[in-house]
Amino acid sequence: MFSEPEREVSQRMLLAFTEANGRLSGTMAALPKSWGWQGRTLSGRVDAPDGPAWLRLVHTRADRANSKLWEGPQAAEYTMPPAVPRPRLRQRLTWTRSDGSYLAELYDLVSEPTVTTGSPMLRHLPDLSGVWWTSLRAALDAVSAVPTDRVAVRQAYLDRAMPQFLGQEIDTTVPAWSTAHGDLHWANLTCPTLTILDWEGWGIAPAGFDAAMLHSYSLLVPGISAQVRRYLAHALDSSAGRFAELVVITQLLQTNSRGDNLELAIPLRQRAAELLGRPT
Questions:
Q1: DSSP letter string over 113-169?
Q2: Which percentage of the chain shows pLDDT scores above 90?
Q3: Contact by Cβ (8 Å): 153, 75
Q4: N- to C-terminal Cα distance for the chain?
Q5: What are the tens digits of pLDDT across the range 220-275?
Q6: Which helix (H) or strand (E) holds 67?
Q7: CA 1/CA 4 separation, integer angstroms
Q8: N or C: which end of the chain has fewer CB within 10 A?
Q9: Taking 80 as the threshold, does the pLDDT of residue 279 lie above it?
Q10: In contact, 220 and 123? CB cutoff 8 Å
Q11: pLDDT tier at 33 (50, 70, 90 boundaries)?
């Protein structure tokens, strides 16, 4: 969850959220509370006729509507197997105005909190049971087997970004590809019961990508990063898994260059040096 954007964006999104709530849930008592990056999304609990629900509003430029991120949640609803715990999409609504395109999605309400709030990084030791970890492993295995033509990570990006942000020449050929959630961090996972949120960007990625991302976002809490390696060893302890870690480290080092995830900068470079056998 991000801070509220500038007033013009905030007012526009709040009006659109109220309109979407009336059209999808039939009520006007909306309580939006969760802002996305730069006000791109606005989400909150609403009272629908068939019970409490979660309404998510997305705004984009009109020429970017129907993109991969725009269609991701709907595609996940139709494609992901029941073994993958996720909020079910009830209804969907799109419209376009002079200021851009809007997408409103009404989901079943998830009562459990996310492991972290406001940041994908883990900074404390959460109480995650063995059942939770086993459920996560089973869910990621189920996701990886889903056939799709959606793409989460492109080879062209790796060819360009990995040498740049790892600081050295590296073979960027992906050893193996599989389907991934694509944004598996601690603010997209609930506990004590596992639910995986935010299915915008799922698609094909280097095998082990989801486990690698969760591991990288756990580096500030060694006890949890060790649990990631223990429970998801089948995805990480291989040449493909180690390559996936370098891919995620590349992505996060790129976010460092934009001023994000700065606490992870040193641990990421230390982990990259371990994987490569030489300093980055």
A1: PBSSSS-SS--S-----HHHHHHHHHHHHHHHT-----BSS-HHHHHHHHHHHHTS-
A2: 73
A3: no
A4: 32
A5: 999 999 999 999 999 999 999 999 999 999 999 999 998 888 999 999 999 999 99
A6: none
A7: 9
A8: N
A9: no
A10: yes
A11: confident
- Contacts of residue 136, Cβ cutoff 8 Å, sequence gap at least 6: 189, 194, 231, 232
DSSP 8-state secondary structure symbol assigned to residue 66: T
The number of residues in the chain equals 280
Q: Among 116, 94, 122, 91, which residue's Cα sits nearest to residue 25? A: 91
pLDDT, tens only, 86-109: 999 999 999 999 889 999 999 999
Strand partners, 32: 44
Omega before 192 within 30 of 0, i.e. cis? yes
pLDDT at residue 145 above 80? yes
Nearest Cα neighbor of 27 from 44, 56, 47, 13 is 47
Backbone angles phi, psi at 200, to 5 degrees: -60, -50
Question: Would you call 13 exposed, middle or buried from its count of C-beta atoms within 10 A (0-12, 13-18, 19+)?
Answer: buried
Question: What 3-state DSSP class applies to 177?
Answer: strand
- 253 with 268: CB under 8 angstroms? yes
Q: Is 34 exposed, middle or buried (0-12, 13-18, 19+ CB in 10 A)?
A: middle
Tokens describing residue 190: 């609930």
